[in-house]
Every structure is written in C-alpha cells, then in structure tokens.
C-alpha cells in the first residue's frame, strides 16, 4: 500500500503539498489556538450575535417576528425610563471605578514599596474576601448599612444621630459603596503590577534632584503608574455598568440599574427584543466610554511631557 | 621618585594645584547590616575641586560610601560632613550633592530637556533663566539640539550625558558618579574618561567617582582611595598608588606586579634594607604605612620596570634568567622569565620596538632594573 503510494508521483506531490500546508506557520498557529478559538466562538461571539439579531426583531407574546425593525432602539434611546437607568448605571460605574482606584492605589503602593519580602503574602491576604460568596458580601453590607444596622446603631450609640438614618441603604450610594468594596481587589492588582515596574532608582534620582517624598511621588511614581490606573479603572467600570445583583439587593427603587431593566424584559415583561436592544446599547456606550478614556489619558500623558 | 611609567596614566594632563580646603570629611564611618560590615571605620577627607575615585572590587563598600554621601543611606556610626556642614539627619533632597546613577535613571516619561530641567523646577527660576541653564548644561555634555528627544530614543552614551547634564545643571558642591562608564563599550568609555576629566576641570566641581576599573581611576583622578572588604587600604595620587602600593592586595589590584620574598636586614626612619634571592641586597624607601611583621617583607616590581638587555649591553643592576613563556599583545610582549633562586618566574612587559616579540622561548636573557622601582610592602 505504502509502496504503491510512494510509486505514484502525483500522490507524492499531493502529500508533499499537504505536509507543506500542515507545516506552514499560520496553519500551525490556527491549530494551536483552535480549542480556545472555538470556545470563544461558541460561548462569546455566538451569544452576542444572537442578542444583536434579537434586537432587530419584535416579539408578539411568545412568538418572535423576524422582520427587521429599529423600533426597539427607538424605545431604548428615547423612553425616559431607559435613558435615566442608563445614565444612572454609567454614573454609578464611574463613581465606583473612581473610588476603587482611589482606595486601591494606597494599598498597591504600600505592598509594592513597603511590602519587603512579604509582597506575595500581602497579595494573598487581599484575596481573602473572595473566599466567601459574592452574595454573602453584598448581604453583609445590608447588615452594616441597614435601618437597625451596624453603622446606624454605632452612630446612635455615639450620640451623633438620634434616630436611625434611612439614607444609608436602598439607594445608589449603597450600590456604590458595595460595588467599590467588591471590586477593590481587582483594582489593586493592575496598579500593583505597574508600580512594581517603576524603577526605584528613578525615585532616588528625583530625591537626589531635590524632590521630597510627596513631590517625587507626584512627578515620577504617579505618572509612571498611569497605565495601571487606566486598566484598573476599566477593569472595574466595564463589568459594574451591567451589574445586576447588587442594585437588586441594596439599591432599592433609587438604585435600580440598566441590568435590572434588561432582566425584566427577558423575564416578566417577555420582551426579548427590547431587552436585547438595551443590552446592545449599553455595550456600545461602555465601549465608547472605555475607548475615550484610554484616548484622553494618552493625550493627557503626551501633553504632560 | 622614578619617572612616570607610560602605561599608568594615558590621559594625564597638567592642572593648577588644588585647593587644600576639605569638601567632604568622613570620620570613622561604619555601615553594618547585622553582623556584616559593608563599610568598616572609614576616615577620609576629600578636597574642594578634586577628582577623587573610590576604587575597589565589587562588595568593597565603595558604593555604600557614595550612597551615604548622597544621603540614600546613613552611617551606623561615624559622621559625614559636606562643605563643613554635618550631614546627619539631612535627607538626600536637601544635600548639596548630585548623583549620576549607574543605570543613569533617566525619567522615561520626560524628554531630554525636561529631564535636565527636573531639579530646576523647584528653584522656581524665570523661564528664560531656566532655559539658559538647561541649554548650557546640554552644551557642556555636547547634546545641544537633542533637547526634544525622549529618553527611549537615545543611545547609551547619550543617556549617560543626559544624566550628567541633569546633575551638573544643579551646580552641586559635589558630583557623585556611581560607575558611570561601566555600561559603555571600551572605545566610548575611553572617550568619556577624557571628556569627564575635561568637564571636571572646566566646572571645578568636586567629583567623586566609584569604579572597579583601575585604569579608569588612574587616568581620571587627582587622588584615589583603594578599598577592600569595607576598609580603605590606601589613599594617594594615582602615581603613588601605582608605584608605591601599601600592600600586596593594592599592588595586585592596580595591574601586574612581581612579588619577591625579602628578609629585612635593617630598618630605619625612611629606608629599609632587605635581602632577596634574585635581586640581592636592596635599599628601598620605606612606605609610610609600613608595619613590620617579623623579619619578612615583600618586594614588588612592575613588569614594565624590567627591561631586556640586548647583546652585550650592561646595566648597573641586572638579573639573569631564561624565557619560559612569551605572549604577544600587539604593541607589547609579555615574557615570563625564570630567575634562579626565585620561587616564581618574573613577568616582564617589553615594548616591541627592539624585537622582544622575536625572543624564542628557552633563550637566556638578562634584565635590567632600577632599584628605585623595587617597592617594599607589608605582607
């Protein structure tokens, strides 16, 4: 069999060509990434395509009408309720990413500059809250912020307030506090990594040229850790826009976010196309904001030079 | 003193006598890390306007000392004064010193001009005055016109010049250089040695150079402190360090040296009479730091201070031996010559003008020497 195959010049040619094809770099590359590629295709790209497709259709009780329409987008963009929810979601996520970065930076700075030999221990300790479920962590904030919660009783015990405040829980501030706590660790890591890359002799050089600790931080360490700050802000902002559990548990009626509306459309309201349109709109706006953020900070860095 | 040896100071230039005013006074400074002493009871005075080198192998404490002068590290005990002012408790940013770092430490987010102007910003100069000083500093290091370049767009030599300009623009009392030339290739390094020396003479600032390269130290410095294991072994001019090393360690570190065992016959205030097997009875200057250790001493002679005697030429002082090895180095040849009675053969460096590169191995030759080139050392 083999001998016969070897004998035929034409077959030898095809085999040679097939071998060449298999050994070519692009083919080998695709073969290598194909499992992950397929995984990403099936679990990421396809669902998004399905959502996008639905956003151009309409639903009539239980049947989907597949005629192309932009009606869902008109509703998503012009109905005051969705517009307000979208704005609120963006506001909450921007506030969360701001506070997360502000709170995470000192921690990352401490670990990187003063962690000594125990850097990995410190990083490990930061992950401890993640050993419990996210829901439990959100619920514990209810215990802290609630009407009879830790904070209220504490403030009353100190005589600062006379009766429990209802301003703590069930509003967007509660959502911001809870999300900031939940995402802190995710912001610490990228900032830590960028601080680790700051050459310590640069800080010494700044000191040598007359800068005190604060000035050398503002003029050298901070500008050089900007990439870490950007990634931390994006890592926090992008997923929090679409957060659904936190507003549901601690947001009350004032803390409802766009994801809750999307959930309602896919659930009780049974309007998948509108839910899909809301999702796509949110996705696009987040992409836009993330893109502009990167561009603005890059431009600012160039100007600062 | 014997005439200056050629190899010792290739870039030596004449300069007016230095001021005797002390710029830096280091008194009994020790820096310990637990039981380990990085610097052990160092006492040293560096004069105003001097080009001073701290020379020694890695781990000898020279960088530790430099960093303590800069204020990045503090003595465990002892004191450091700069310009008559004690530096204890004064942080690096308020000391009249500036540093050129080994890695140059150029700010990567700033361009050349901004790097140079970095320290000036605090002085709140007028814009035109600041620009003028930056331009002047860039001109001093021949970087005029490169002000807008980013640090990432510079070559190693240029980065080094930026680091130099950034420190000089501050007009410090003392400029500290931490192995500034070690990252450059040989040719550029030699060129920068000459330039640094010229620059120092032009600005008149006290320079302290840390280096492990003995030729660099010899070529550039007014004085050198040779350090070993946290201790200062000798402080002297390059010529004296090279020609009159206090001990074998210093002699060995500063280039090749033939060591000959000697027996002390007579010792008085200024001179020493010793008996050797190869060189007979020799009277030498007694080194300042000579401490007698029993009856034994060591005599040293640099390989280039031994000359081959051709044909029937004679010299007042000569030794006879046999060539056992020959190594060719272009302009010079190294001969290894066995001398009857000496436990180790002598190494001889001879220029190739008269054909030293053609002496066959096994030839019997005679070597002339100047007894003044023989230096007595404590063991």
From TrEMBL, chain A:
CDD domains: TM_PBP2 (cd06261). Its main location: membrane. The keyword Ribosomal protein does not apply. The chain crosses the membrane at residues 37-57, 90-108, 120-136, 143-161, 173-195, 216-238, 276-297. Residues 86-295 form the ABC transmembrane type-1 domain. It is found in: Cell membrane. It is a multi-pass membrane protein. Gene3D superfamilies: MetI-like. GO terms for cellular component: plasma membrane. Keywords: Cell membrane, Membrane, Transmembrane, Transmembrane helix, Transport. GO terms for biological process: transmembrane transport. Belongs to the binding-protein-dependent transport system permease family. CysTW subfamily. This is Binding-protein-dependent transport systems inner membrane component.
